[in-house]
Amino acid sequence: MPRPFIVGNWKMHKTLSEARDLAITVRDGLSTSSDIDVALAPPFTVIGSLHEVLKGSSVSLAAQTMHEAAKGAFTGEISPLMLKDVGCTYVILGHSERRHIFGETDQAVMKKARAALDHALIPILCVGETLQERETSRTFDVVDRQTEHALRHVTPEEASRSVLAYEPVWAIGTGRTASPEQAQEVHTFLRKAVARSHGDSVARVIRILYGGSVKPDNAASLIAEPDVDGALVGGACLDAPSFLAIVAACRP
Ligand code: 13P
């Protein structure tokens, strides 16, 4: 069984002083036991500062997106080299807000996943269907296509270190969580897809997180599902007590 992994995706929230306060409270609120992995994905502007705050702690840093090139004339973009330089361990790729608001394609996620691994960043690869796709029975087709692209140029060894995140678009920021059974159904499907593309041993260890309205009161029942290895938390990670309560609920 993979170790549980809880990631707080801060999205476009927190000024520098607010970010430092939140990160310090999270850092100090976590016990030092190493039975669970925790990462924070703050906005780019505060990553460097939080690296100082979190140095020597058990909390890792993730970025929320990146460009695939190491450098170049790409105004407004951030490269994997830069993320590594300021202390990121992980990078979230293909989040549904990137896909649906900013037009990020499966091809782009494929290139970014390769680039992240080339720069020793661990990709957190997001997949998930819209409400309309679910209602027209296309959930499995959609997550299969997104996962296949994201992992297409990733070796089995790299895939075993990578992270998948199932985030049904209809559950993000809506307060409408997937039921534990709905999450488990898709997670099992994803694990089988990884087994087909990268082998059984990779499928056993790759971490598959659930995201979409995870809160302190539903986290335990989601993580209790055999194929749910952790959570990608949005709104509830902006408040330290609620994020810490989610981490506590997910401890093995
Ligand atoms: P919410 O927890 O606010 O639904 O957001 C989930 C998410 O998008 C995490 O990446």
Topology:
Layout lengths: L4 E5 L6 H14 L7 E5 L2 H11 L4 E5 L16 H6 L4 E4 L2 H7 L3 H13 L3 E6 L3 H5 L3 H13 L4 H6 L1 E4 L13 H19 L1 H6 L1 E5 L7 H5 L6 E4 L6 H11 L2
Parallel strand pairs: 1-2, 1-8, 2-3, 3-4, 4-5, 5-6, 6-7, 7-8
The chain binds 1,3-dihydroxyacetonephosphate.
1,3-dihydroxyacetonephosphate binds next to strand 8.
Compact overview of the structure:
The protein has 252 residues and is α/β, with parallel strands linked by helices. It contains twelve helices and eight strands.
CATH class: Alpha Beta
Structurally, how many domains make up the residues?
A: 1
What ligands are attached or bound here?
A: 1,3-dihydroxyacetonephosphate
For the largest sheet, list the strands in their spatial order: 1-2-3-4-5-6-7-8
Order of helices and strands: EHEHEHEHHEHHHEHHEHEH
Number of alpha- plus pi-helical segments: 12
Beta-strand residue fraction = 15-25%
Overall pLDDT: 96
What is the terminal-to-terminal distance? 10 Å
pLDDT < 50 runs, ≥5 residues: none
Number of strands: 8
**CATH homology superfamily:** Aldolase class I
User: Percentage of helical residues?
Assistant: 40-55%
Task: Please compute the radius of gyration using only Cα atoms.
Answer: 17 Å
CATH topology call: TIM Barrel
Give me the CATH architecture, please.
Answer: Alpha-Beta Barrel
Descriptive notes:
- With 252 residues, the protein is an alpha/beta fold.
- It has one domain (5-249): Alpha-Beta Barrel (TIM Barrel).
- Helix content is 46%, strand content 15%.
- It is built from twelve helices and eight strands.
- The protein has helices at 16-29, 44-54, 80-85, 96-102, 106-118, 131-135, 139-151, 156-161, 180-198, 200-205, 219-223, 240-250; strands at 5-9, 37-41, 59-63, 90-93, 122-127, 163-166, 207-211, 230-233.
- An eight-stranded parallel β-barrel has the order 1-2-3-4-5-6-7-8, surrounded by five helices.
- The longest helix has 19 residues, at 180-198.
- Residues 9, 95, 167, 172-173, 211-214, 232-236 line the site of 1,3-dihydroxyacetonephosphate.
